[in-house]
Amino acid sequence: MSDLKEKLLHVVENHKVGTLATIRQNKPFSRFMMIFNDELVLYTATNRETHKVEDIEANPNVHVLLGNESKSWDEPYVEVEGTVAVEESKELKEKFWNDHLKNWIPSADDPNYLLLKITPSAYRYFEKSSSEAETYTF
């Protein structure tokens, strides 16, 4: 495994809240989301009745920021460019559902619960806010 991939995995495995940006009416729209991962593929849980589902149906291109949690400007973070698709695998929904989702999704069996699978096209890794990006492409 490359050193860069190890650094990327360290960020995505240790930071579970990030921003997800979609495109709505040709403008970016961002929101905080809980982020899960399977290696470098990202997932986020949502309710099928949300605007973000409408956004990705119109334009599947997304951007995710994950990492720096404002403890200092010297924390690593990643930017992820990718495409998103709805994922309804019962196995994955059970794997990623947790009590933190209860306010939006009462259980893993909720019929409105779905996952958004973010397939990255590129990651940019920043060691700290003033560093040059290291790019990992697929």
TrEMBL record:
It comes from the Bacteria. InterPro entries: Pyridox_Oxase_N, Split_barrel_FMN-bd, Stress-Dev_Protein. Residues 4-125 form the Pyridoxamine 5'-phosphate oxidase N-terminal domain. This is General stress protein. It comes from Bacillus weihaiensis.
